[in-house]
Specification:
Structural class: mainly alpha
Distance between the termini: 39 Å
Number of helices: 4
Largest sheet: none
Strand content: under 5%
Number of domains: 1
Oligomer: single chain
């Protein structure tokens, strides 16, 4: 039983670290964390894959942009704009942030 708990704990920690990849721009990282929490706790299971795909694509695009000094300068505004747009969509699922 202890071995199962240890393996399950490691798997959970690994998934959490993978999903919590930081972009490096606080506004973006904050939004992504809240978006992910909304998807995993409020969105019905049947609809989660589409939202998770969107989340992963957004995280990758922002991570890539953060690596480019020119793009990183505009990233905070882009993250705020995306967050404002998605807040309306996610409000239907009782997500607020």
């Amino acid at each position: 039983m202890k071995r199962f708990a240890l393996v399950a704990g490691f798997a959970l920690a690994t998934m959490t670290m993978a999903s919590a990849q930081q972009v490096g721009v606080p506004v973006c990282d904050d939004f992504l964390a809240k978006y992910e929490a909304c998807v995993t706790t409020r969105i019905p299971a049947a609809q989660q894959p589409a939202f998770k795909t969107s989340l992963d694509q957004t995280r990758k695009a922002w991570s890539d942009a953060a690596k480019n000094p020119t793009a990183k300068a505009a990233l905070e505004a882009s993250c705020k704009q995306t967050a404002d747009q998605l807040k309306q969509t996610l409000a239907a699922y009782n997500c607020s942030f």
